[in-house]
């Protein structure tokens, strides 16, 4: 995990976000007729290709001013999609009255993540009336997780993630006893109820620069496996920040009249905005990595 940001890194990231705003995002807003304000922000889907897949377009903006209208988050709720066609594959049927949620936490093992246990406990507190199954530490075997995924609508992983640059489908989530749940295993799985996956793990939406056109990473693999929406991270996240984002995310989703996975992008937007505002907008590593993919 990256624990802090020095001054040079802050300036560099701020410069990248401002360049994305000035040369990529701001020029298209008039054509989209997007405006600030309103009761609810509209959705926008980004479908970058090539090296652009590594850029945080969803966070583009000028962060030296507090005035509204200088960040994409003032105008729209951002999502990504690996292909335009992927947006038409999602189910348009009504969600269940109360989704079944599977949470997985690995606080021990390889470099400890004590915040993951806190993370799932916060989720349980915010979704008291939900049908939740939690697998923690030794309970989270590959077999039990796969079984739980086939029975659940939503799944939340709070653990380490590993990208395999040589063989992207061997990218994996680290479970009990260092066992690896490979992307290929998930893609091959029959998931009749799959709606939403939250990958609160390092670099789950990071591909490999030599394969950038193919958008191969854990998050894209979850979409391919059948999940209609995925929350993931573009690079390493801070163990102490993830529980707050997850808590606010599920509080927002379960606080609505019906917990609907199609509202996940709005819920993430809300959670990340709360985190960004609490940090004064300066600690870019704490909030920029979180992204939504899919419908």
From TrEMBL:
Name the domain of life this protein comes from. Eukaryota
Official protein name in the record:
TPR-like protein
In this protein, which residues make up the domain named CHAT?
Answer: 16-294
- Organism of origin is Mycena venus
Family matches, as InterPro entries: CHAT_dom
Q: What is the lineage of its organism?
A: Eukaryota, Fungi, Dikarya, Basidiomycota, Agaricomycotina
